[in-house]
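Chapter summary example: a protein plus 3-hydroxy-3-methylglutaryl-coenzyme A.
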Amino acid sequence: MSSKTIQVVEVGPRDGLQNEKAMLNVPQRLNFIRHLAASGLKRIEVGAFVSPKWVPQMNESKPLILELFKNRKLYPADAAFSALVPNVQGMEDALSTPIPEIAVFGASTESFSKKNINCTIEESLERFRAICKMARAKKIKVRGYLSVAYGCPYEGAVSEKKVIELVKTYLKMGIYEVSIGDTIGVANPKQVRNFLKKLSREVPLKKIAMHMHDTRGTALANVLVGLEMGVTVFDSSFGGLGGCPYARGASGNLATDDLVYMLHGMGLKTGVDLAKLLEYVPEMTKDIGRKLPSRTSEAGLPEVQPFIERATK
Ligand code: HMG
Ligand code: MG
């Protein structure tokens, strides 16, 4: 595991900000994205083409993306940007911008699907097929999220078999990577290990990302299991911002700073300059008007580090 590079997908500007009471304006959101990219984050989800009536925080994602690409040279060339798309209307909006990657988002249960995107799972799959077709024609990459895979706020336990079937359906329609969401942060390491073991018999884990919310403090333990099982892509959000407005208690994505701190300590590479990333903590604290929930943003980096290099010299 030691020389491996891990991909961190930064979802703070979308999953993070969509659940904050404070509404950041476009220049504030762009400043944030610029800092994330300058800190070495290579995959950043910058917004969502969703209804502003449903998620007002993501309003103006289109002008934001247009502005970002107008000034593309301000961002490192190897940074990749993406945005959420729920339906054909959202995809049409996405196509009117230069965004090179979009992400569709479906659910593992009917109740959550209805609450989050106002349609059944079957209807969502039809929408995603249409979106994939539109994306293929324009050579746009499509990522897919599968929410509440480890537990649903409305239905409780979720069938692993059903989740695996949905992952396979996503991949078949041309989605290149499926991010499995513990949307309300209920998963535990034993559950994750058992699930990934079953999933890996049917789908290569290189097509899988893990999207853990840290609602109950189990996200890093679950990531460790994912790493041991061979997952190499993990979603996280700066400072632990965020959640999902349609899942009560889904506060807090796994924090990018806590994730990167652990990965680097284990000798894994991410390309992220953690000290630089943390420089944005005061600005974001001011923007959202509250303390960030992550441990590393609170504690800072240890004065003597990195532990791994000292131990192996
Ligand atoms: P709907 O109300 O069923 O839509 O919403 P509709 O087709 O009936 O249209 C109603 C109105 O919405 C119309 O406007 C449409 O134009 C408009 P009106 O005529 O009333 O003025 N509309 C749109 N506006 C902007 N963008 C669009 C769009 N589509 C229709 N794309 C819809 C259906 C999907 C739009 C809505 O349910 C929605 O926006 N849902 C998004 C919810 C959301 O963003 N949730 C958070 C993200 S998911 C998440 O956080 C989980 C994740 O992190 C993974 C994990 O943690 O598990 C990804
Ligand atoms: Mg999420």
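Key point: Confidence is low (pLDDT under 50) at residues 309-313.
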